[in-house]
UniProtKB/TrEMBL annotation:
It comes from the Bacteria. One of its GO terms (molecular function) is peroxidase activity. Pfam families: OsmC. This is Peroxiredoxin. PANTHER family: OSMOTICALLY INDUCIBLE FAMILY PROTEIN (PTHR42830:SF1).
Length: 142
């Protein structure tokens, strides 16, 4: 079992409040977040950006391991993830996580690439965590 931690602090309430996020590793240390960073494009981060980063990283790693297990020894995987936050039930909900994968894997067939990427999407722990539509666009570069 692996565990990780992060913490968030919020001073003030509602739109006027200001928050800070810190992760165990220190990669984020008192990183600002709040209404302005979430909805108004102000500098800082927000929960959906962090979910997108986590999903892109997890899916890319899952795909890498699936390719290695299938016998491929080299390649490059670039994934972008876009998380959508919509109004729902009087509040908000993450409704979609859209993954876009661009890959270069010497010697792989298009069929094997498609299958392994789809399996990685389904098996990625963050995909399993999310309760939303998950899409995957994939392209294989030669």
């Amino acid at each position: 079992m692996t565990t990780n931690t992060a913490s968030a602090r919020y001073s003030g309430l509602g739109k006027g409040g200001k928050g800070a996020i810190t992760t165990r590793s220190g990669v984020l240390s008192d990183q600002p977040y709040g209404f302005g960073t979430r909805f108004e494009g102000q500098p800082g981060t927000n929960p959906e950006e962090l979910i997108a980063a986590a999903h892109a990283a997890c899916f890319t790693m899952a795909t890498s391991f699936a390719l290695a297990k299938a016998g491929f020894a080299d390649g490059t995987l670039d994934t972008q993830c876009t998380v959508t936050l919509d109004s729902a039930d009087g509040g908000f909900a993450v409704t979609k996580s859209a993954l876009t994968l661009k890959a270069s894997v010497p010697g792989i067939s298009a069929e094997d690439f498609e299958r392994l990427a789809d399996e990685a999407k389904a098996g990625c722990p963050i995909s399993k965590l999310l309760n939303c539509e998950i899409t995957l666009e994939k392209s294989l570069e030669s």
